[in-house]
Design a protein that fits this description.
There is one protein chain. This protein is about 70% helix and about 0% strand. By secondary structure, the chain is mainly alpha-helical. It has two domains: about 80 residues; about 140 residues, no CATH class.
Length: about 220
C-alpha cells in the first residue's frame, strides 16, 4: 500500500523520533566513555593497549555520530520542508509537533466556542429554546471535551517553551506564543488563528509577528476602524 502525501508529516515525525532516540543513546554512551577515560587517566601510567582501547572507543563513537547524521539526511526532511534546512534536529521535530497540535487545538476550540454561542443564544432568546434535557446534554458535552482541550493547550505551551530554549535568532523564525488556558481568554487571543510559522522570514522578522505590543496596536486600530 502506497502512503499518501498527507501521511508524510506524520511519518517524518516518527522517523525523527527514532533518530533522536538513537542520538540520545549515543550521547549516553559518549558520556560513559568520557567518564571511564577520566577515571583511567588518573592512573600514573597507561599501557599502550589501554590507550589504544580508549582511542578506539572514541573513534567508534565518532563513526556512530556520522552514521546518525547520514540517517537524518536520508529522511529527506529538506525535501518535504526545504525551508527547514540547516535547523537543529530537535527544533525541527518540536516545531512540526507544535504545528499539528495547534491545528487540532484550533478546531476543538472553535467547536467549543460555537457550542457555547448556541447555548447562550438559546438561553437569551435569540434562538429557539433547546429544552431542559438538550440544554443539559449540550453543557455536559462541552464540559466533557474541555479537559482534553486544556491538556492539548498545556502540551502546546510546553512545546513553545522548548522551542524558545532551542531557538536561534539567525534562523529568522518567529518564537511561538503560548496560548491562554482559560476559554474566555483563548477566545479573545488572536494568536489562536495564526498558523505555526515554519518558513524563515526574508530579512528581519516583521514586528507585528514578534512584538506583542505592535500586534495589540494593530488589533486596536482595526477594531476602531
Amino acid at each position: 500500500m502506497t502512503n499518501s502525501p498527507q501521511d508524510a508529516p506524520a511519518r517524518l515525525k516518527k522517523e525523527l523520533d527514532t533518530v533522536l532516540a538513537l542520538q540520545a543513546d549515543i550521547d549516553t554512551a559518549d558520556r560513559a566513555i568520557q567518564t571511564a577515560k577520566t577515571a583511567i587517566e588518573k592512573q600514573q601510567s597507561l599501557s599502550d593497549d589501554t590507550k589504544h582501547a580508549l582511542s578506539g572507543l572514541e573513534r567508534a563513537h565518532e563513526r556512530m555520530m556520522t552514521k546518525v547524521e547520514a540517517l537524518y539526511s536520508s529522511l529527506n526532511v529538506t525535501d518535504q520542508f526545504p525551508e527547514l534546512q540547516g535547523l537543529d534536529l530537535e527544533y525541527v521535530r518540536t516545531l512540526l509537533l507544535a504545528r499539528d497540535l495547534k491545528i487540532n487545538i484550533r478546531k476543538c476550540a472553535i467547536a467549543s466556542f460555537f457550542e457555547w454561542d448556541k447555548l447562550n443564544q438559546a438561553v437569551g432568546g435569540a434562538q429557539k429554546a433547546l429544552g431542559t434535557k438538550l440544554h443539559q446534554c449540550t453543557r455536559k458535552a462541552i464540559a466533557k471535551r474541555q479537559p482534553a482541550l486544556m491538556s492539548a493547550i498545556c502540551k502546546f505551551n510546553t512545546y513553545c517553551a522548548q522551542l524558545e530554549e532551542l531557538h536561534d535568532l539567525s534562523w529568522l523564525i518567529p518564537v511561538l506564543r503560548p496560548l491562554p488556558t482559560k476559554l474566555n481568554e483563548l477566545r479573545n487571543d488572536d494568536s489562536l488563528m495564526e498558523d505555526v510559522w515554519i518558513t524563515p522570514s526574508l530579512g528581519q522578522i516583521p514586528r507585528w509577528m514578534d512584538d506583542k505590543n505592535v500586534h495589540r496596536g494593530i488589533r486596536a486600530v482595526l477594531k476602531r476602524d
